[in-house]
Amino acid sequence: MARLRRGLHRKPRSATGARAQALLAEDQASPAQEEIPTRYKSRVSTPPDIDTLKRLVGQSVPDLAAQPFARVRNAGTDNLIYKIGDAHALRVARRHEAIPSLAYREPVAMRSLKDLPLETPELVANGLTGMAESWPWLVCSWLEGESAEAVGHAFTETDAKRLALFLLDLQGQKRDFAAEPNIDNHWRGCPLVQRDAPTRGAIADVADDFDAIALAAIWKVALEAPPCLERDRTWIHGDLHAGNLLVKDEALSGVLDWGLSGLGDPASDLMAGFTLFEGAAQDAFWKASGISETVWRRARGWALSTSVIAYAFYRGTKTPIEKRSRKLLEDFSFSI
After folding, report:
1. Which residues pair with 84 in a beta bridge?
2. Is the pLDDT of residue 243 over 70?
3. At 58, is the secondary structure helix, strand, or coil?
4. How far is the C-alpha of 300 from the C-alpha of 298, rounded, in Å?
5. Is 70 exposed, middle or buried (0-12, 13-18, 19+ CB in 10 A)?
6. Among 10, 62, 16, 56, CA closest to 40
7. Smaller CB count within 10 Å for the chain: N or C?
């Protein structure tokens, strides 16, 4: 290839400064890791202790009172997760920024979305702790399977078709109670133009690692695509990365973590065609999705925007999200 990425072998710059913090404030992607990254420490508060949570769950669902509670490792940045017995999960926010999603977005999605072709958690009970600082908690069904990211699952054409059909069904669900894009879901589903400044800023910040000209060209094409009309907005999941997808018997089986869900441009979910699939699987996803060139361009813009902002923030952390973002940005750097 004629064009090489500038500064490919340079040592990555730190992204822990004020500029990276400002970029991430516009769109935080969720890393699949157990410990809170150092840069988040100042925003973490102490959620209710496990005894309080057991008492609340027992009051709401007496049948679960005597079940064992086991902390789930690698639960993510936003929530603590406990497995209750064999069939249920308890989710509780572990930092203030995650409270709105757990209090509204997740339970509404679990109540509203029915008969989807992949497994999704079902709401059992939810509420507030009732303490001076009320923390939301939620009990849902436990889905069997393994994280696609944790097991390094290679997505197949069959997986791609399954996810495409899942998204088509999701987009056809009644949208009555779906929440609007807002800061609590990192503005997933909003018009791409609202992401212009942070995306261009992040592209500039990572220019020593990737071809900024190529990335800017992709972003320009996405912005020039006609925006999603109000009538075309649908339910979106908002966070379709491999850490939120389950596999059983080496096949895609379920979709977890609806904390960024709501109403928005379906292209913000269809970016999975770029972030999850390659080669024949990617072709199968686009064919099964049946989307227009316009939506495809916006989906590519979403993939670029979320990845470049995440990479600018997580660069050097050796986290799954850094790895995912780097891979896509490398691909995009050579795609123009």
Report:
1. 69, 88
2. yes
3. helix
4. 5
5. exposed
6. 16
7. N
Of 7, 328, 28, 16, the C-alpha closest to 198 is 28
Residues 6+ apart with CB under 8 A from 214: 3, 332, 333, 334, 335, 336
What pLDDT, in 10s, does the model give residues 60-88? Answer: 999 999 999 999 876 667 889 999 999 99
Count of alpha carbons within 13 angstroms of residue 265, beta-carbon side? 25
Compute the half-sphere exposure of residue 101: CA atoms within 13 Å on the CB side of its CA. Answer: 29
Helix (H, G, I), strand (E, B) or coil at 167: helix
The three-state secondary structure class of 109 is helix
Query: What does the alpha-carbon distance between residue 153 and residue 295 come to, in Å, rounded to a whole number?
Result: 27
| Among 268, 295, 253, residue whose Cα is nearest residue 156 | 253
Residues with Cβ within 8 Å of residue 309, at least 6 apart in sequence: 23, 24, 26, 27, 29, 198, 199, 202
pLDDT at 4: 29
Domains of the chain: 18-333 (3.90.1200.10)
Question: What does pTM read for this prediction?
Answer: 0.85
- Classified as helix, coil or strand, 275 is helix
227 and 191 Cβ atoms separated by less than 8 Å:
yes
Angle between helices 212-224 and 293-314 (to 10 degrees): 140
